[in-house]
UniProtKB/TrEMBL annotation:
Gene Ontology molecular function: DNA-binding transcription factor activity; sequence-specific DNA binding
Pfam families assigned: AraC_binding (PF02311), HTH_18 (PF12833)
PANTHER family xrefs: ARAC-FAMILY TRANSCRIPTIONAL REGULATOR, HTH-TYPE TRANSCRIPTIONAL ACTIVATOR RHAS
Coiled coil: none
Protein name: Transcriptional regulator, AraC family
Keyword Protein biosynthesis: no
PROSITE patterns: HTH_ARAC_FAMILY_2
Domain HTH araC/xylS-type: 180-278
Keywords of the record: DNA-binding, Transcription, Transcription regulation
UniProt keyword annotation of Transcription present: yes
Amino acid sequence: MPNLPQKVYKFEVDQPFTLFKSGEYFASAGWRHKDITNHGDYELFIMITGKVYIKIGAQQFELGPHDCLLIPPFIRHIGYQGSPDHTNYYWLHFFPNGSVTSSFTKEKHGTNSVLIPQKMHIRHFDRVTILARQVLDSANNQTTLPVTANYFVTSLTIELANQFSAEKTNQSIVGSTKFEFIKNWIKIHSHESLTVNTIADHFDISPTYLTLLFRTHENQTTIAYINQIKIEQAEQLLLTTDLSIKQIADQLSFQNEKYFFRVFKKVTQTTPSKFRNSYSRTYLNNINVDPDNPQLLDHLKDED
């Protein structure tokens, strides 16, 4: 099948979106997305682990870890292939409170609009994870104001739009420069014990030049960047696994649990335990549990 041009949706955000429903889904081997059509609500499908295969209209999408798919309303979508075991994703349905347009052009967003591609790979997944957990937590917390989840799902969409915009800018400015390779290499090897010298030796450059690159392009030291990447992964593990803090520190090759604690607090301004407990109220669903669509119910009442 030839590659189709990327479809981009433009949302007006003068008013926050209205969250309809949200949750975190755990799929077992062979699971396929049900045959469904959304009635007015858009869905953000955010992959955590595994693979999901969804067909929207005539177009097929294969989703892997940290991919995001935007599913528009009034178009049939269905799983066309079984997922592997341990597939896990966030799902969030919302109603826009402004106009929505779509195109295959590279139009610019306005001051009160955001652009979301139909499919994108989330580069800074930790930011999206935190916002997704805030949506789920506020939606299932009886003590928060009802509009809280609306603002969080809008913020999540804006974060996706910012990352999409930054990705296009980075591609046009730096492309596949050596520095981009260095950053990607650090992300891939972030579970290892990394030092400035080991990274510089691997890329055959001096430690001084490596630090200069990071100060110039990232406005921080090499060590600060390494710690930032490690803590981003730690945040994800804290929110999506039951690993102990010591196990996470070991998995990311920190010297010891105490040092991990100190670095985590320096980067996030909070402790690992407080971070993990911040967004604990989430909605976990299965194939038999799904909220009704309020707009569809109103439509059916009108027909009666």
